Amino acid sequence: MTSSNLYAALAGAFPAALDAVAIETADTAQPLYYTWRDLERGSAMIANLIASLELPPASRIAVQVDKSVEAMLLYLAVLRAGHVYLPLNTAYQAAELDYFIANAEPAVVVCAGRHFGWVSQLAFQRGVGHVYTLDDDRSGTLLARAAFHPDRQEPVRRGADDLAAIVYTSGTTGRSKGAMLTHGNLLSNARVLQSTWCWRSEAEGGDRLIHALPLFHVHGLFVAVHGALINGSPMIWFNRFDARAVVARLPEATVFMGVPTLYTRLLAEPGLTRAACASMRLFISGSAPLLIETFKAWQERTGHTILERYGMSETVMLTSNPYRPESARRGGTVGLPLPGVGVRIHDDKGRPLHAGEIGGIEVKGPNVFKGYWRMPEKTADEFTTDLWFKTGDVGHIDEQGYVTIVGRSKDLIISGGYNVYPAEIEGYANELPGVLESAVVGVPHPDFGEAVVAVIVPRPGARIDADAVIAALKSQIAHFKVPKRVFVSAELPRNAMGKVQKNLLRDQHRALFA
C-alpha cells in the first residue's frame, strides 16, 4: 500500500533548493530565517522525540501553545510520527481544557511555559503520560528534549482514511465535539485549493504568503500552512496580527488570508493603498461573514476584490468564489462548490429545494470528515441516509450555482410560527444610516414562542435611535421579521476568529420578555 502520510505529500512539494528561505518571521525581536531544510530537520527531531516515547498507534497529541514557527514544526512532526494532532485554542481555560483532555485522552500535552503548573496538574490527573512546554521564543522542554534526537526520520506509513487531526468545534450548543479529519481529507482539500486558487510555481514567478492567522484553527493551519507548503511557497510569518506591520510587508507578498476583522483593521491603516498592494495576487477571506461594505471598501481602496470562501472544522473548505475572472467574485456569497465537492439544499423534511429557496446546506466529498470523536450517535444524526453531511448552515443556491449563507440552523428564529432568518434582517439593518453592523437573535417570548431582538453597533460618531431603527425596518420587511427590541452596543461579542457569538447575546437577553 502506498503511504498517504500528509507530511510526506507536503514535503514532496518542497523546492529542490532546500537551503532557500521558507519562512521569515516578521515580528520577532530580530527576523528569523528558516530554510526548507530547517523545516525538514526540525520536524524530524521532534518526530523522533515523539517516537522515543513508544506511544500506542494513533495517539493524540494535544497542543495549546502560542503561535510560532516551532509550533508549526510540532504539527508537522506529529504527522510524520503517524499520530493525531489536537490543536486547542489558546483562550481555553482550565474547565475547558479538562474536558478536552478527558474526552480525547491524549498521550502527550504540549502547553505554554507560563501555564505548565495548572496544565500539567490537569493532565497528570487525567492520566496523560507526558507534558512538555513550548514558547514563542524557541524555548521550552519540547525543543530542549528534541535537540538530542536525530534530524532524519522516515514518515510513518499512513492510509488516506487514517486520522491526522481532531479539531474541536466551538460548542455553542452544548459540549464541543471533536471532528476527526484524515490524511486523505486534508490532502485532497490542499490539492484542490492549490489548483482552484492558481498558486504559482517558481517558474511562474512564485507566490509568497503573509501568514497572520492563529494555528489552532482550520483557516490558519489547514488552509494557509498547507497552501504554502504544498506549493513550495515561502511565508512571511506573524506570530500576532498587527495591521500596520502587515501593510508594510504587502509589497513583498502575493497572497494574504484573513478573517473579516483583519480586513476592517487593515482598512483603518492610511498606508493601505493601491501602490502597497501592487504585487498582491489574491486576498482571501473566511471563517465569518464578510460585510458587503467591507467588500466594496476594499475594492475601492486597493483595486483588489476579496475572494470569499466557505468551510467548516468538519470539512475544511467547501466552496470558493472564482479566482478568475475577478469580476465573477460576488460579495455576500461564498461562491461555487469546489471541484469534487457536492453541495445541495434540503428542507427540514429532507426534500430537495429549487434554486433560490432557503434550506439546510448539505455537503459531500473527499474532504468531509470521518465523524465525531467517540460520538457515533451524534455522527449518525449529522449525516443523511445517503451520507451527505448536514452542515447546520442555512442558505440557498442561485441559478448560476453560487452559494449564499443566511445563518446557522440553530440561529433560525421561529416567531409566531413564521421562520425568520437573522442574516436577512441584519442585511437591512446594516444599510440604515449610522449603522456599522448588527446581530439579530431570537429570545423566548410568552406569546410568539420567540421574539426577534437586534443589537446595533453604530459607526464612530453616529447616534442610533432604537425606535427609529424599528420604524425604518417596518417599512422594509414583513412585520413578523421586525425586531421587538433594538439595543445599541459599542461592539458585538466575537470569538478568536471574528465570528459573532450569538449564544452570548441570546443568554444576555433571554429574560427580556419573561
Question: What can you see in these coordinates?
Answer:
- The chain is of the alpha/beta class.
- Strands 2-1-10-9-11-12-13-14-15 form a 9-stranded mixed β-sheet. A 4-stranded parallel β-sheet has the order 4-3-5-6, sandwiched between helices. Strands 16-17-19-20 form a 4-stranded antiparallel β-sheet.
- Helix 2 packs across helix 3, helix 4 runs parallel beside helix 5 and helix 10 crosses helix 11.
- The mean pLDDT is 94.
Which term fits the overall shape? globular
Distance from N terminus to C terminus (CA atoms, Å) equals 63 Å
**How much is the radius of gyration in Å?**
23 Å
Average pLDDT score:
94
- Give the strand order, joined by hyphens, for the main sheet: 2-1-10-9-11-12-13-14-15
Biggest sheet features: 9 strands, mixed
Count of individual beta strands = 25
- Helix fraction by DSSP (H/I, runs of at least 4): 25-40%
Spans of 5+ residues with little confidence (pLDDT < 50)? none
Count of separate DSSP helical elements: 15
Query: How much of the polypeptide forms β-strand, as a percent range?
Result: 15-25%
Give the class from helix and strand content and strand pairing. Answer: alpha/beta
